[in-house]
Design brief:
34% helix, ATPase_NBD, 491 residues, ATP-binding, 23 strands, nucleotide-binding, Carb_kinase_FGGY, ATP binding, alpha+beta, six-stranded mixed β-sheet
Length: 491
């Protein structure tokens, strides 16, 4: 390797930040850039972002990353927040809607209507996903219902309906390419896992015209070439696109069944790879993890809506001290003081799928402090992961021997030890803050032949820290108390 060795520019567009990193052929990050993103809640249950801000901040992150770099780029790779949806004018590229966040519950009435019509079993069988407002199809329908002549314009091919990966690709290619990958398509509730294509019956069910949807491609392979934008030169091939949680599993090295990873961000995704689309009977989702250009890899997943977001919310509730100070105080408490927080702030995801559930803090006394509430919010991350972890073990029929974790909340060492104690298995923390971006870069590198196969990728250095479980008799008592609090939020 020398100074002329090509680099992969990996974009990781999440809910809270737009990031860009440069990855070399050793799998090392040699430069990075980041810009924060804002999320607004115009009314109860609504969560949205400005798609133009997403694009502008992604470009700013790219420019920061490429500043001072004088080496050629071999490819661009994209990982992105999943299920979030944007509509834009196919001719002008102008956004026609907000980016409706994966957290948004505005399509709850539509999902309830489809439930009442008995559509749940068919949707689950085809897509592997519960009929829930988290997924993209209901959001797309809401957009068309609220745009002037939305359905007619979409049917005429004038409107693009896409997830964030397709929005970024469209912009990066100067409006030349409208496409998505298998992993993002699998999160829309319009993609049939068995035919690996947009499903005609689901398109009718949700009233989404095929003409408004992107072309579906393998996650690794040629998508488009960039146009010159800021420091990003023209003619760089976009060689990978993948949803961020799937990318994190790939970046962790989870190529074959047996590894379970949890990405702790605004929400949390637990995912384990599978050889085929095995249906869950315990409230989890079946999804297509990625397509490496040769064959698809499937996964079982549990999506938790509020984890990092719950801690942020709790810190605002007890405002007056910094989040870091409160978190430190919470970790120093001998226990949670009997306080439990069920962060169903916009419903509950896996394994409960209760869109109507609302948050609950219980066990408050005169001795309760802000630190107790913060402690309860941190513990709620562990309890929700335990709910999904147990369901995953029941579905797979085999014990999970470790949990591999990544994401911002994993920097909290107290939380990592609490999680290991609660699960009674090792928690293996990635020390890289860019696992999703690395996963996308690894897929692009596979497509380019930089890494020949999964075995070559497995040999890359991945710094990690291991937390071994400590035996604490009180953990099951606390978890039982959590379950009782949880029951009070369920419909």
């Amino acid at each position: 390797m020398n100074e002329l060795t090509p680099l992969i520019l990996a974009i990781d567009e999440g809910t809270s930040n737009a990031k860009a990193v440069l990855v070399n052929e050793l799998g090392q990050v040699i430069a990075r850039g980041s810009r924060p993103l804002s999320l607004s809640h115009p009314q109860d249950g609504f969560s949205e972002q400005d798609p133009e801000q997403i694009w502008a901040n992604t470009l700013a992150a790219i420019d920061e990353c490429l500043s001072g770099i004088d080496r050629p780029l071999s490819a661009v790779a994209i990982s992105n927040q999943r299920e979030s949806v944007v509509a834009w004018d196919r001719r002008t590229g102008e956004a026609l809607s907000p980016c409706i966040s994966w957290q948004c519950r505005r399509s709850t009435p539509l999902c309830a209507q489809l439930h009442a019509q008995g559509a749940q079993a068919s949707v689950l069988a085809k897509t592997g996903l519960a009929l829930d407002p988290m997924f993209s199809a209901g959001k797309m329908r809401w957009i068309l219902d609220h745009l002037e002549q939305g359905h007619a314009r979409a049917a005429a091919g004038e409107i693009c309906l896409g997830t964030v990966d397709s929005w970024l690709l469209y912009k990066l290619s100067g409006g030349q390419v409208f496409a998505t990958d298998y992993s993002n398509a699998a999160r829309t509730q319009l993609f049939n896992l068995h035919t690996q294509a947009w499903d005609p019956e689901l398109l009718v069910l949700f009233a989404i015209p095929l003409a408004a949807l992107p072309r579906i491609q393998p996650s690794a392979g040629f998508f488009a070439e960039t146009v010159a934008t800021g420091r990003l030169p023209a003619g760089i091939p976009v060689m990978a696109m993948i949803g961020d949680s799937h990318a994190a599993l790939y970046g962790q090295g989870g190529f074959v069944p047996g590894l379970v990873k949890a990405t702790l961000g605004t929400g949390t995704s637990l995912m384990t790879p599978m050889s085929g689309p095995i249906a869950s009977t315990h409230g989890l989702s079946t999804t297509l993890a990625w397509h490496d250009g040769t064959a698809p890899t499937y996964a079982m997943e549990g999506n938790i809506v509020h984890t990092g977001a719950a801690v942020q919310w709790a810190s605002r509730l007890v405002a007056g001290e910094s989040l870091d100070q409160l978190t430190e105080q919470a970790a120093q408490l001998p226990d949670n003081g009997g306080v439990y927080f069920v962060p169903a702030l916009s419903g509950l995801g896996a394994p409960h799928w209760q869109a109507q559930a609302r948050g609950l803090i219980c066990g408050l006394t005169e001795a309760t402090s802000g630190a107790h509430i913060l402690r309860a919010s941190l513990e709620s991350i562990g309890y929700q992961i335990r709910d999904v972890f147990d369901a995953m073990q029941q579905d797979t029929g085999s014990p999970m021997t470790a949990l591999w974790v990544d994401g911002g909340a994993t920097r909290n060492r107290w939380l990592m030890q609490f999680l290991a104690n609660l699960l009674q298995c090792p928690v293996v923390r990635s020390l890289s803050p860019e696992v999703s971006a690395l996963g996308a870069a690894h897929l692009a590198g596979r497509a380019l032949g930089i890494w020949s196969d999964d075995e070559a990728l497995a040999q890359l250095e991945r710094p990690r820290e291991r937390f071994e479980p400590e035996t604490e008799a009180s953990m099951e008592t606390h978890y039982s108390a959590w379950k009782r609090a949880l029951e009070r939020t369920l419909c």
